[in-house]
Design brief:
Organism: Vireo altiloquus
Structural class: mainly alpha
InterPro entries: Uncharacterised_TM-17
Order of helices and strands: HHHH
Number of domains: 1
Main location: other
Membrane topology: Multi-pass membrane protein
Subcellular location: Cell projection, Cilium; Membrane
Shape: elongated
Number of helices: 4
């Protein structure tokens, strides 16, 4: 039965929500890094890596979401698999900002916990969608 629709509506909604949330996450985290650099004695050689991780994460987020949308809508496992791979990279960077950035405030913990939860849920839906496309 080739007429059945395999693309996942929950995944599509979550990708959209993640795109909106990530924009908020990026701006809030950037504002907090700037705030922390003003309020705390932030060693110069620590400010650059924290900012670099945040910007690298933002750069990864664009193809990650694009490939997720495209793979889901076209029911193609390759872009969805690539998106899943990029999600792994995003999770590593998110964990860095959660555990190893120079100063971690409660707001950092909250923002990163929500993002990690969304990545986890999204990854589960991607794996389920890929399995449906392949079968």
């Amino acid at each position: 039965n080739n007429t059945s629709q395999l693309s996942s509506l929950p995944l599509q909604i979550l990708l959209y929500v993640n795109g909106v949330y990530y924009t908020f996450y990026f701006l809030a985290t950037l504002a907090m890094i700037i705030y922390k650099s003003q309020v705390f004695s932030y060693p110069d050689d620590f400010l650059a890596p924290d900012l670099a991780v945040l910007f690298l994460m933002a750069i990864l987020e664009v193809p990650r979401l694009y490939l997720g949308f495209k793979g889901n809508l076209t029911e193609a496992e390759a872009p969805l698999g690539l998106s899943l791979g990029l999600t792994v990279g995003s999770v590593v960077l998110c964990v860095y900002l959660l555990l190893w950035q120079t100063y971690v405030l409660w707001a950092d913990v909250l923002l990163n916990a929500v993002l990690l939860s969304a990545y986890g849920l999204e990854s589960g839906l991607k794996v389920t969608a890929i399995a449906a496309f392949v079968s």
